[in-house]
Amino acid sequence: MSELLKVPTMAEFMAQGKQPEVLFWVGSAGSFDDRAKKITKAFVKILNSANVEFAVLGTEESCTGDIAKRAGNEFLFQMQAVTNIEVLNAYEVKKIVTCDPHSFNCLKNEYPGLGGNYEVLHHTQFIKELINSRRLAVQQDVYKDKRITFHDPCYLGRANNEYDAPRDLLKLINARIFEMRRHKQTALCCGAGGAQMFKEPEKGDMDINVLRTEDALETRPNIIATGCPYCNTMMTDGIKAKEKENDVVVMDVAELIANAQNL
Amino acid sequence: MEYLPNVLFAIALIVGIGYFTKNVKKLIRNIKLGQDVDVGGHKSQRWKNMAMIALGQSKMVNRPIAGILHIIVYVGFIIINIEVLEIIIDGLMGSHRIFSGIGALYGVLIGSFEVLAVLVFIAVVLFWVRRNIIRLKRFWNSEMTSWPKNDGNYILYFEMVLMTLFLIMNATDVHFQAMNSGNVVSQFIAAWFDGVSESGLHLIERSAWWLHILGILVFLNYLYFSKHLHILLAFPNTYYGKLVPKGQLNNLDSVTSEVKMMMDPNADPFATPAEGADTEEPAKFGASDVQDLNWVQLLNAYTCTECGRCTSACPANLTGKKLSPRKIMMDTRDRLEEVGKNIDANHGEFKDDGKQLLGDYVTHEELWACTTCNACVEECPVSIDPLSIILEMRRYLVMEQSAAPVELNNMMTNIENNGAPWPYNQMDRLNWKNE
Ligand code: SF4
Ligand code: SF4
Questions:
Q1: What is the spatial distance between Cα B358 and Cα B367, in angstroms, rounded to a whole number?
Q2: Residue B435 carries which DSSP code?
Q3: How far does the centroid of ligand 2 lie from the alpha carbon of residue B84, in Å?
Q4: Nearest CA to ligand 2 atom 2
Q5: Do B421 and A28 touch (CB under 8 A)?
Q6: Is B77 exposed, middle or buried (0-12, 13-18, 19+ CB in 10 A)?
Q7: pTM
Q8: CA-to-CA distance for B188 and B168, rounded, in angstroms?
């Protein structure tokens, strides 16, 4: 990444007595996972090019607690939530955007009950807003005629009924979308959710991510697009297991958009 | 002696309905063993869901073949039951086809019942074929042996017999055939009985009539023991179904109060609890047995139709793991029944039987295989939420027993210490910006 990314923190905004227009919740994966960091940067590039006044919490951000909650540790979840809410409320945060559907779901649905009320958007929804309000334009030809299939992240799709935003963005870049047999409401999980990402799977006859990759490969795609760092890891591993790394790439919708901006 | 049939009929009716009422009371008592849960408000949304999902069967048609067949059986079942009203009045009064006095409309009604009866019969035969000849995979999972498997078939046989009896009853009814109105199907069946004397026909007609109504009473009482209970419970269950986004899992209030206490620097841990606060046992976190679940979850268990749509969409089950959301629901119902019987046997009080839902019915291995993907919740045609039960048991395992898999414990320690599920320092959270 050659050019410098502008990533101001909430603390810096505060010091200048200003409020950003939106807080970018980076999330643990987006901060630390090598593959997910690329998605984070792609999204920042988009924000920078659309001149969005955003800020991150930086070192003041902590895990949402979503994974702990789903592993059954409600106690740890609420500790994390209450801590984060204190920080967010102190900064008077109103609007949050994140690239991680798990953080999205948790912040949007589970924080309000503990005193954290924000407008929360998934990055595909936010990018769509930017394009609709003409703050962002995309080139039509970068992915023209590429075969793309979209894997619905459970926590964006079934969990929150958002199936259109990512697909609308893919249409904008002129890709040819081929739906998997199981898609939208019936999409198969990548296998990462519910804390599965952090443990070995139980005994069975195959791994979930491989089954989902088979679904995707049936559409003979050039690109498997998704909107979740965990799905991305699972599908990338699936592609490796199927020895298709030379034919198929797994990309986040934000990366596709950033590339289509020809920046 | 003249009134003997009326008296016998009244007795059959009282016994049949009486026994059914007894079981309904038991059902309600068992469901109330569950914890309280706030289901207030949103009445119009709830009525709408019930009308759409239970009455309108909106989720059934997601699988068109099963959906359409099911609607035929369902509509047929409801409409043909109008005929039962006439049977009951006839039985009690000793009248014969008391509604026939309404004239031409009667013919239209009975005619449509007859057509429906044939359609139901065909649909039921196709259902049977799907289960037993085509052997649809979801009807042959490991939890679908013995009773659950037979139960599914018994219901189909029941329906076949009831529909046949209804048609035979009409076909051998000399008066009704003579009226020649509404016998659209039965006139052809009547031809099979050509040559039988009038008294013979009368005997057959009476037998079919009695068997038909007795069959219906038996069926009514069979419900309580069967997955067929859903024809009643689908209504309350869809009414009380989850309204918030599927991804939203409830926050435990008992945990909230403890967390607030810990985070509040001014809180005095030795302060006397406020008036009215629960001073007895500390709350139990999560669920190890059915009484720890809330009553909607228990209602869910009784409503489950064992259709297996959830399991056939479950990523864990599809890849050979032991987890099956249908089995979670069946286990919950079986255990709840066991607890109910225990209470009956011990004069209204539950005596510890050394068993519980967690471990004796549902294994840890099943619980840890769930990805919380909500596919089961999405699929369920009667708004059941198996995921919520899985989560409650995970909560018990983690918060009461510290029995999470080792890797998950490591992950949680990391979150506790570094604010991330990996062993990275929170101070490095923004490093990506300069990499
Ligand atoms: S939420 Fe759990 S039980 Fe339900 S379908 Fe997904 S993995 Fe299976
Ligand atoms: S929980 Fe719902 S989908 Fe699953 S078997 Fe029962 S009724 Fe069918």
A1: 9
A2: -
A3: 30
A4: B380
A5: yes
A6: middle
A7: 0.92
A8: 10
Whether residue B172 is found in the same domain as residue B257: no
Number of compact structural domains in chain A: 2
> Residues B202-250: pLDDT tens digits?
999 999 999 988 998 998 899 899 999 998 999 999 999 999 999 999 9
CATH classification at residue A236: 3.40.50
Asked if residue B337 lies in contact with residue B30, where contact means CB atoms within 8 angstroms, the answer is: yes
In a mutational test of the pocket of ligand 2, which residue from B140, B329, B333 has the highest number of ligand atoms less than 8 Å from its CB? B329
pLDDT averaged over consecutive 10-residue blocks of chain A (263 residues)?
80 94 97 96 95 96 96 96 96 97 98 97 97 88 89 97 96 91 96 92 95 97 97 97 95 94 65
Give a yes or no: residue B206 inside a domain: yes
In a domain, B430, yes or no: no
In angstroms, the separation between the Cα of residue A193 and the nearest Cα of chain B is 5
Ligand 2 midpoint to CA B119 (Å): 25
Is residue A110 included in any domain, yes or no?
yes
**Nearest ligand to residue B380 Cα:** 2
From B139's Cα to the closest Cα of chain A, the distance in A is 20
Judged by its nearest atom, the ligand closest to the C-alpha of residue B333 is 2
- Structural domain boundaries enclosing B202: 4-31+63-239
Residue of B nearest to A212 (CA): B315
**Residues B258 and B163 both lie in one domain:** no
- In this structure, the answer to whether residues B203 and B261 fall within a common structural domain is no
Whether residues A16 and A125 share a domain: the answer is yes
Contact B383, B53 (CB under 8 A): yes
Q: With both helix axes pointing from N to C terminus, report the angle between A208-217 and A229-241 in degrees, rounded to the nearest 10.
A: 80
All residues of chain A having their beta carbon less than 8 Å from the beta carbon of residue B371 are 154, 189, 191-194, 196, 208
Residues from chain B that touch A188, judged by Cβ atoms under 8 A, are 313, 315, 318, 375
Distance between B388 CA and the closest CA of chain A, angstroms: 10
Mean pLDDT of chain A: 94
**Distance from Cα A146 to the centre of ligand 1, integer Å:** 33
Beta-carbon contacts below 8 Å between A and B: 217
What domain range is A43 assigned to? 10-131
Which strand ranges, in their side-by-side order, compose the sheet holding A176-177? A176-177, A147-150, A223-226, A249-252
Number of domains in chain B: 2
pLDDT band with cut points at 50, 70 and 90 for residue B292: very high
